[in-house]
UniProtKB/TrEMBL annotation:
It comes from Clostridium porci. One of its GO terms (biological process) is 'de novo' pyrimidine nucleobase biosynthetic process. InterPro entries: Aldolase_TIM (IPR013785), HPS/KGPDC (IPR041710), OMPdeCOase_dom (IPR001754), RibuloseP-bd_barrel (IPR011060). The keyword Ribosomal protein does not apply. Residues 5-208 form the Orotidine 5'-phosphate decarboxylase domain. Keywords: Carbohydrate metabolism, Lyase. It catalyses: D-ribulose 5-phosphate + formaldehyde = D-arabino-hex-3-ulose 6-phosphate. GO terms for molecular function: 3-dehydro-L-gulonate-6-phosphate decarboxylase activity; hexulose-6-phosphate synthase activity; orotidine-5'-phosphate decarboxylase activity. Its EC number is 4.1.2.43. Belongs to the HPS/KGPDC family. HPS subfamily. Pathway: One-carbon metabolism; formaldehyde assimilation via RuMP pathway; D-fructose 6-phosphate from D-ribulose 5-phosphate and formaldehyde: step 1/2. This is 3-hexulose-6-phosphate synthase.
Length: 219
């Protein structure tokens, strides 16, 4: 199976603190995420500076577009992002504006974050636009009491993968959770606090990568 990527979410509202982490762990990270809180606090400067410091990394701007899609996506790409996030329940106009600015105009990519409810019609609509990446975000607001990764969720993720989606998995994800996904062709695991708040962020990132390699036996 293809090795899933490891995405580091930088959600601290402070670029200096973010750089303190990235300079320790960048070699173990495949995708650097300018997190929602970081971008709200520091603006696109966060993306711009990450791009200068990490020219070869994929950079995601987690700007959770719900409106003004084309313009917001353009701002992130002009700052150096490769990917942006858009919410699954944005209007069709907004989703299409993001896709036009991303996949069609710039050859960049979009992560659609699944929000409250979706159905197969909505999923087929995403596929028809050329959207591949879906984020499955556990729990969302009540992060202290994360839902379990139960069989129902894992089966649903397997079904989404079979529909052709590249899945990103996130939400308080622990290294010990990784083996649960071993039969699902996960595209990306997204980890934030467990790396950023670790006393040894490099060791924490390495632990994720080791767990991913062990579970997925990449070629
Ligand atoms: C939260 C996010 C986070 O960036 C993502 O969930 C990863 O962070 P953590 O591992 O700390 O949950 O988008 O809304
Ligand atoms: Mg995020």
């Amino acid at each position: 199976m293809r090795k899933p990527k490891l995405q580091l979410a930088l959600d601290m509202p402070d670029l200096k603190k973010a750089f303190r982490v990235t300079q320790k762990v960048s070699e173990e990270i495949d995708v650097i995420e300018a997190g929602t809180m970081l971008v709200l606090e520091e603006g696109m400067e966060a993306v711009r500076k990450l791009r200068v410091l990490y020219p070869s990394h994929l950079i995601l701007a987690d700007i959770r577009i719900i409106k003004a899609g084309g313009k917001l996506a353009a701002m992130a790409y002009d700052a150096g992002a490769n990917w942006v996030t858009v919410m699954s329940d944005a209007s069709e106009d907004t989703i299409e504006a993001v896709v036009n600015e991303s996949i069609k105009r710039r050859g960049t990519d979009v992560q659609v974050e699944i929000n409250v409810g979706y159905d197969d019609q909505r999923l087929s609509y995403f596929r028809s636009l050329g959207i591949r990446q879906l984020i499955y975000h556990r729990s969302s607001e009540v992060v202290e009491t994360e839902e379990k990764w139960d069989n129902e969720t894992l089966n649903e993720l397997q079904r989404l993968a079979k529909m052709g989606f590249e899945l990103s998995i996130t939400g308080g994800l622990d290294v010990s959770d990784i083996p649960l996904f071993k039969d699902i062709p996960v595209y990306c695991f997204i980890a934030g606090r467990k790396i950023c708040k670790s006393p040894d962020p490099l060791a924490a990132a390495k632990n994720y990568q080791d767990a991913i390699k062990k579970a997925f036996h990449p070629d």
